[in-house]
Amino acid sequence: MATERTLSIIKPDATKRNLTGKINAKFEDAGLRIVAQKRIQLTQDQAGKFYAVHAERPFFGELTEFMASGPVVVQVLEGEGAIAKNREVMGATNPADAAPGTIRAEFAESVGENSVHGSDAPDTAKEEIAFFFSGLELVG
Ligand code: DAT
Ligand code: MG
């Protein structure tokens, strides 16, 4: 499998509870390398642009309000099959369905406040990395 990069976000519920280090340890233990990382505050409008694919969903307002409710840590993870591996380490969207040991099983509070985002495919990973990081911030 090829080396890939994927976009990860540590969401406001997790940054508020000071879980950035514990979540990063899960990534590193799984063989993912954090090759770019920054802590930022999104506006609801920016969160809406990032999650535009969900604009018609009934939870869109709740989702964008939550994503703007506090700081997030956006990061690029790199490794063999990083996109799928990250989704595995994250666990299912709803923490009630997430496998034991996954980030969402251990830390998520609800389906909405579920601690992490991860890109779901090579095309979205590329778009989502470019949404947050410039070429200068991405060393080889
Ligand atoms: P994922 O984050 O696992 O890729 P998704 O892309 O289906 O899940 O949805 C994006 C985010 O939207 C998800 O992390 C939390 C929120 N969300 C999804 N389904 C929801 C629901 N039924 N109620 C509230 N928020 C929801
Ligand atoms: Mg998704």
Automatic annotation (TrEMBL):
Any single biological process term in GO: GTP biosynthetic process
Entry-linked CDD domains: NDPk_I
Q: Which domain of life is it from?
A: Bacteria
Q: Where is the active site?
A: H117 (pros-phosphohistidine intermediate)
Q: What is its EC number?
A: 2.7.4.6
User: Where does the chain bind ATP?
Assistant: K11, F59, R87, T93, R104, N114
What GO molecular-function term can you cite, just one?
metal ion binding
What cofactors does this protein use? Mg(2+)
**Keyword terms of this UniProt record:** ATP-binding, Cytoplasm, Kinase, Magnesium, Metal-binding, Nucleotide metabolism, Nucleotide-binding, Phosphoprotein, Transferase
Looking at the record, the residues that make up the Nucleoside diphosphate kinase-like domain are 3-140
Q: Which family does the entry's similarity section mention?
A: Belongs to the NDK family.
Extract the PANTHER family matched here: NUCLEOSIDE DIPHOSPHATE KINASE, NUCLEOSIDE DIPHOSPHATE KINASE DDB_G0292928-RELATED
Q: Which NCBIfam families match?
A: PRK00668.1
Q: What is this protein called?
A: Nucleoside diphosphate kinase
Q: What organism does this protein naturally occur in?
A: Limimaricola hongkongensis DSM 17492
